[in-house]
Design goal:
alpha/beta, D-Maltodextrin-Binding Protein, domain 2, three-stranded antiparallel beta sheet, about 45% helix, about 20% strand
Length: about 325
């Protein structure tokens, strides 16, 4: 009898213990992503589907914007914790003006993915022939803005840069004649190229100085980094796992092709040519000196950042062993 009573008391105590110490809820983060549909802007979706975020004990709410300019405004306001796919020049420029942002990961290094195109019937064959023509980029401070300005300077071209926002809208403007030269990143535009509707005018990797530079980054609101630091560090690790998985598991290409409603071979060829894994490294900001030199030259900042400013702005956690 005594044994039975003790067993019942133990069961009651255990039950009360569970009631008083419920399982801790996953940490919540809000994330804004510039431009829907890019290969690398889709990594967070796959991190969620493959439960990398769940494994990191995170509950992530994410949505897409029309570009880096809009994303910067949102994170500056504190409406989100993390912003992805932001052009580094815009990030540095905003930081020097007092924006409460910090860099927690590289996202794109080099300019291999970006290209500029014209309609197939256009007479423009190179940037020198584009003087006076309108040429698209997404938004001021974006990676497409940086690369375009560098291309124009290198070519000595007097084409007229215009912000056109997202890729579907840019293609519409080019095909309707509102804009002479569009910008894109695969898989956008690849199908139209195959169908002979457009042709590539120039690619971003034609600027030698940009090939080793980090041009796109992941940033965090400074207040969020203080109050949710552990969750944000786990977010970085979950993102890194997703990147590794996207390049290791053939299922990733199948899922991405289905999402974009495009042929799997087209997607696989596009990733191989435009999105090598080394360009997606997340561990370091590459060529910080060159980045600052370009930021000054293109008037995003007045002078290079000090060592103290760089240490405050760039807070990328080391990869776990």
């Amino acid at each position: 009898m005594l044994t039975r009573v003790l067993s019942i008391l133990a069961l009651i105590a255990a039950t009360l213990g569970v009631a008083q110490n419920p399982a801790q809820a996953a940490d919540k983060l809000k994330v804004a992503i510039s431009q829907r549909g890019f290969w690398d802007s889709s990594f967070l979706e796959f991190a969620e589907k493959e439960e990398f975020l769940k494994a990191a004990d995170l509950d992530v709410e994410f949505f897409y914007t029309e570009g880096g300019g809009q994303t910067l405004q949102i994170i500056n306001s504190g409406s989100v914790d993390v912003a992805m796919s932001n052009g580094l020049l815009g990030t540095i420029g905003a930081y020097t003006k007092g924006a409460p942002i910090r860099v927690i990961s590289a996202q794109m290094t080099g300019a291999n993915e970006l290209f500029w195109y014209v309609r197939a019937d256009s007479k423009v064959r190179n940037l020198k022939e584009a003087d006076g023509k309108s040429i698209a980029f997404s938004a001021p401070g974006s990676s497409s803005n940086l690369v375009l300005l560098s291309l124009l300077k290198q070519a000595g071209s007097k084409a007229r840069p215009v912000g056109t926002g997202g890729l579907p809208g840019t293609l519409t403007q080019v095909m309707s004649g509102q804009v002479d030269i569009g910008w894109a990143a695969p898989p956008f535009g690849v199908k139209e190229m195959q169908e002979g509707k457009i042709r590539i005018l120039i690619r971003g990797n034609e600027v030698p100085s940009l090939r080793g530079q980090t041009v796109r980054t992941i940033i965090v609101n400074a207040d969020s980094l203080k109050t949710k630091r552990d969750a944000i560090m786990r977010f970085v690790e979950g993102y890194r796992e997703a990147v590794d998985w996207m390049y290791a598991d053939p299922q990733a290409i199948k899922m991405y092709a289905a999402k974009m409603k495009l042929d799997e071979k087209l997607i696989a060829d596009s990733i191989r040519e435009f999105h090598p894994k080394e360009a997606m490294q997340t561990d370091a900001m590459k060529d910080v000196e060159g980045i600052q030199r370009d930021a000054v030259k293109l008037k995003f900042i007045d002078a290079p950042l000090t060592k103290e400013q760089l240490a405050e702005l760039i807070q990328i956690p080391p990869r776990k062993k």
